[in-house]
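User: I'm putting together notes for a lab meeting next week and I want to include a structural view of one of the chains we've been expressing. I don't have a solved structure, so I'd like a prediction I can at least talk through. The sequence is below, exactly as it appears in our construct file.
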Amino acid sequence: MLSKIKHFLSKNRKLIPLFSTALLAFLAYGIGAYFFVGMRNPQVFLNLFRNTSYLLISGIGMTFVILTGGIDLSVSGVIALTTVASAVLLREGMNAWVVILLMLAMGMSLGALMGTFIVKLKVQPFIATLAGMWFARGMCFFISDDAVNINNPIFQVLGRTKILIPVLKELAESQGNPAPYITIPVAVGLILLVVAIYIGKYTRFGRTIYSIGGNEGRNEQSARLMGLPVDRVKLLVYTFNGFCSAMAGLAFSLFVFSGHGLYAPGVELEVIASVVMGGTMLTGGSGYVFGTFFGVMVLAVTQVLIQFIGSLSSWWTKIVIGVLTLTFIGVQTVLANRKSTRKGTWSKDASESVKRKRKKLLFGLAGAAVLVLVVILITSSLKTPGSEDLTASSQCNVKPFREAEAESLIENGAVIVYHRTAGPQCVDELFAIYPDGKIIGTTDEQEVSRQVEPSEVDILLRVISVDHEWFSNEIYSTYLNPCRQCFAHYINISYEGQQKAATGVDGTTAMPPGYAFALAQIRPYLPELDTTP
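Assistant: Thanks for the context. Below is the predicted structure for the 533-residue chain, given as structure tokens.
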């Protein structure tokens, strides 16, 4: 059995990074599901794709770019520009379908422009796309300095339509959870993935992409000598990546229902990391689009595990992704060196020396990965005597929800009671909103108030109850131990004879989308409390 596995791996050495990424993603999620009951909910698993649909869409285009030996740093700028431009056009009353087509055309135009500089003027991809990123970011604030909400009915339908998963329905219902679903952006990303796999494997265009990349740029010259349309293919690749970036921006807009120039900071690096972890070599010529799917999944699972652990800062996601990216680059380098060693004429001593170096590198990378995991486990569980100050600064003693007090406020006429606890300053804030527009916020030490129009309160209740379906089964309580940057929330709403309370912690995929939207609607109305310790 072992010999068969060894023979298979030896014959399919290019698939090792892809298999490793897939195994890592499922193994990490399986371990998380073993320790955390919440991760056994099928919807939490599907939320991995809902929260990263824009990364998958962008990663597909980036995979083709990297396969040619190039790079595209304009991704985050184009995503942000798409959110702002689409939000403003919709606000001005333009047809939603026309806006979608215009955004895709804009992304393709930007990609074609950068591709022209790279192909015709021989500008390095790094410089051309970096300029494209700054141009797109600048255009965001030229269009609008502030965030612009998206209230268009078609966008609302596209963002909130739920595609049920029948296979997982019975499993979810047996656990007392709603039927699991994915959203339209996720479905679009998966369809685009299938199309990209077909293009890369079964078309002349895809084979030309592989022929251009690799061998430190020497393959491009070989492709030209073979008569392949190198310039045309590279231009089309950057145009396609611009299309994917704009589509990712639309997916992001449908996720947050707004546009802003500061959205998606550093996303281009997350996309590149996902592509590399998926097994695509940065030098080009080797890799698979399907691997990018698992690269995105590894990133999403890492974020979820850190959220469920609760005691770790969100920055641990960056640390883990950095270590994994370096590890996969090292593995790819080892495999590439091994391939070149077999092709060349090496002496026995030289071959042994290369093998020793390869083993040292693999052991070093494995040791680094293990070290990071050990540090995470120690950080999440270690509490030594005399370190109370450090613990207090990184993880506060989360106060319990003031449910009884909230119920009393509801009985005394409040229509919305919101309690927020934890966070960087370890807050404990309680707010009550009354139908006459009076809003009161309290802590143990202070009380503040604010007055708004009664009509605003009525609109707020209608939006939360009808648009965000607060009183439906789609809103349910979730709770995880908040990380030091996260808040725990308790919302109790009374409207038209109905009353319902639910809890949640921001930054978690377990939180229902409607709960997050309700939070976003309530927060702007609340008076400010002094959270200075």
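A couple of points you could mention at the meeting. The beta strands are 148-149, 162-164, 181-183, 258-259, 416-422, 427-433, 438-442, 447-451, 487-495, 498-505. Residues 308 and 480 are 6 Å apart (CA to CA).

User: Perfect, that's what I needed.
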